[in-house]
Amino acid sequence: MHISLIREQRGVNALEGFADQDKREKPRGTPGEFARKANPVSWPPAEKGLQPAETHLDLARHRSVGQFVAIGLSLAIASFSIFILVRAFSAVSLSALRQAIAATSAEQIVAAALYTALSYLALTGYDGLALRQLKARVPYKTTSVGSFTSFAISFTLGFPLITAGTVRYWIYSQEGLTASKVASLTVIAGVTYWFGSIFVLGAGLAFHASAISAINRVYPFLNMLLGSLILGAVLAYLVWVTIRRRQVSLMGFHLELPGLSLSLGQITLGVIDQCAAAATLYVLLPNHELLDYFAFAATYVFACILGVASNAPGGIGVFEAAMLKAVPVTSGEALLASLVLFRVIYYLVPFLFALAFLGAHEGFHRWTSLREAMRRNEEEAVLEDEINPLRKWYRDVWRSKR
């Protein structure tokens, strides 16, 4: 007890000593300087009567509610699409489906392959524009491989942020890009895809309202109004990014939005990509008399958006159900045959090529690394011979005699 009292007294004396020392060492200043006090700063700023912890809790609740709504919407789209597909397949004869596939001409197959190549060529520009926005220098041969393989694999497997991001990091990390830059590149490339989709959809609704009215059973005036609103939103965005630099937080990434020139490039490449992809399926259709191409392109983009919203890999099932419901054809077997061939030409064949390119790229990279290591070993051996002539004599003369 006595010892504890002594320790407490020593602690008090020590605190008093520090206080006196602080008073002695405290610099003198004007009374105004000592009177000023720092304003309290809270981050993020809290509302009146609301603590920062409560703000974060409310944000987390809103995010969880939004996630549940998105999951419910995806499940509803997928369930309705399965219902449509089951009804469609129940009325289809397999023999008639095989005959419809066999009736597709070689010219249609070649045209579909060319449009597929054009679409994927435009996709390589997605990564090129994203790298330019990120101020990263990467050779086009690497950009083309990274873009083609990432899109071809993510189109087939789905979950583009994971699949495409992994493939891109595998390729672009060899060029010195960090994981954060690869993630930003993936997001910017996805934004370019959406720019093209939205613009094609808006243009189709605005300028081909009557043809689309025969598909969605909506008055042409309403289709034209909706398309004009979409195009107006795109124009407003272009004006918005032209005024000054803009930064946004998208999917957890803080990005600086491209300016006017790069944004116009994004829209142009997106439109080329979407129109070429729509043309791939359009040329495979049994007849084109019942459907205008531009109206079909808008319908195709809308079906793709539904497929993305369902989170199904490649929108499989959802895309087919939407096209079966929207495209007017005389034979359901013929349309199904066109959709099957489209899946093979636009998705399966590029997917196989992407796997082959990845294997070849990795093999070439390893062979280049091996040659570089062998070259360094040879240079080190020459340098050691110059430094130590006795070592060279031993290797050339003495070991040769033995």
Short description:
The protein is mainly α. It has one domain (59-363).
What's the total number of strands? 2
| SSE class | mainly alpha
For the residues shown, what is the average pLDDT?
Answer: 75
What Rg, in angstroms, do the CA atoms define? 32 Å
Helix content: over 70%
Counted up, domains total 1
Give the low-pLDDT segments: 1-8, 21-51
User: What is the topology, as strand order, of the major beta sheet?
Assistant: 1-2
What's the shape?
globular
Largest sheet: 2 strands, antiparallel
Sketch the topology as an H/E string, one letter per element.
HHHHHHHHHHEEHHHHH
Number of helices: 15
Approximately how much beta-strand content do the residues carry?
Answer: under 5%
Question: Mind explaining what this structure looks like?
Answer:
The chain has 402 residues and is mainly alpha-helical. The chain has one domain (59-363). It contains 15 helices and 2 strands. It has helices at 2-25, 31-35, 52-90, 94-102, 106-133, 140-157, 160-172, 179-207, 209-216, 220-243, 260-282, 293-309, 318-326, 332-387, 389-401; strands spanning 247-250, 253-256. The chain has a two-stranded antiparallel ribbon with strand order 1-2. Strand 1 (247-250) and strand 2 form a beta hairpin. The longest helix has 56 residues, at 332-387. The radius of gyration is 32 Å and the shape is globular. Residues 1-8 and 21-51 have low confidence and may be disordered.
